[in-house]
Write a structure and sequence with these properties.
This protein has 457 residues and is of the alpha/beta class. The chain folds into 4 domains: 116 residues, Fumarate Reductase Iron-sulfur Protein, Chain B, domain 2; 40 residues, no CATH class; 150 residues, no CATH class; 102 residues, 3-Layer(aba) Sandwich (Rossmann fold). The chain is 46% helix and 6% strand. The chain is built from 25 helices and 7 strands. The protein has a 4-stranded parallel beta sheet with strand order 2-1-3-4, with helices on both faces. α3 packs antiparallel against α4. The protein is globular and about 65 Å long. It starts with 26 loop residues before the first helix and ends with a helix. The structure holds iron/sulfur cluster (2 copies).
Amino acid sequence: MKTFLDWTAYRDAGMGDAYADIPKTGGDFARAVSVCINSHRCEEKRKGVMCPSFRVTGKVPYSTGGRIRLLKAALNGGLGDSPFTDLMLADAMDLCVACKGCKRECESEVDMSMMKIEYLAQHYLHSKPSLRTRLLANLSANLQYYGCFRYLPTVLNRSRLLSRLAELLLGLSAKRKLPELAQHSFEKRHVNKTSHPQQIINDLPLAGEVALLLDTFTNNFCPENAEAAIRVLNKAGYVVHIVDHNPDHVDANPPLCCGRTQLAHGLVEAARKNAYRMLEALLPHVEAGRLIIGLEPSCLLAIRDDYKFLDLGAAVDKVASHAVMFEEFIARETQAKRFKLNFESINTDVPLMVHGHCHQKAVGAMKSMRKVLKMIPELKFEIIEASCCGMAGSFGIEKEHADISMQMAEDALLPALRKTPDARVVANGFSCRHQISEGVQRSSVHLAVLLDEALPV
Ligand code: SF4
Ligand code: SF4
């Protein structure tokens, strides 16, 4: 079996272990599957993230281990000659929201989110991706090439008839609102600043130079987050370069994208092309000694973690070692005594509830969130103990997933928010903010926006 992802990191998994139960086919992918020790711990409802689909259904095939057992059966020939079209396997994989909870919380660090990508890519050998998959996976390019695509969410959100039609034709749930785009993207708003790597010079002593990753979501849906982050970094004395196309190497079209949306939908080759271009754009910053700062957890972590599965060469490790999320950067730089900004207190009467994106939790970044929030004097905040919000990229807006997506949100996140109706909400994930707005009709902000409000005058 030829795999789409590079699983060589698992080559030694199970070596010398007579009980490793490595499937007969699948090579290194089979070894990755075999790291599950079948302990059934993922079938317990415990604190943490793993496994949202099992939490809300209580059904074993929707647990991480349940999926592993089906994958093992597929690779051992137990699901017939064409195992990646098997309906039981398809059903189990369909409800994996790729939250990476298992990667952190399973005792064997089973990485089902990457296995789901491999599964989808294998599945597409037999049945082509749907129009919806192609629209959502190629979001960044679609926004660039089809002007009308920018207005589609707004139009559908305002017309029941058209949203029903979109459900019928595209499989986008008519029950859910679609996230609407900003009137002008960050690139449009700052056209002269992003056409070349820019420097926003601060009047304070220089603390360092950084590169800010302008992901598809921040650029098109919430450019104010990038603007807030720049103000915070700038005020702290950092020269901010916007990661842009390298004019010497990278074509301006299609727009720069990490490829995470394509990976999530199993379009591995398309994601690989984007990843190559992204690495070309990032490398000059890394070589200049700059850290790459990301605002959208899944995009930054795609570069840091998922690219290692794409067989992209030596540049991946170089770039990965320089890629940090906004909160990780501030926590790290504060520790190193380079980030010395004294934030001011902001409306101390209003408590703050913080929802972590699953991928932030999977890499332990909530510690950094806590450290940074403590830098705002007198701020009372609580980090919500919850699993995945259920939106999981585009999962929650897909017709067949809309209900279970909301059940995932109702597991802990939405009840916690309803108990604190007056609290402000911080959520760094774009899809988390959308789910919160759908579930409790409350807006939430990125940490960068909160810190921007707390900047000293
Ligand atoms: S996936 Fe992890 S937690 Fe679940 S059975 Fe396998 S080893 Fe245990
Ligand atoms: S990635 Fe998340 S949803 Fe998928 S198996 Fe792991 S814990 Fe479950």
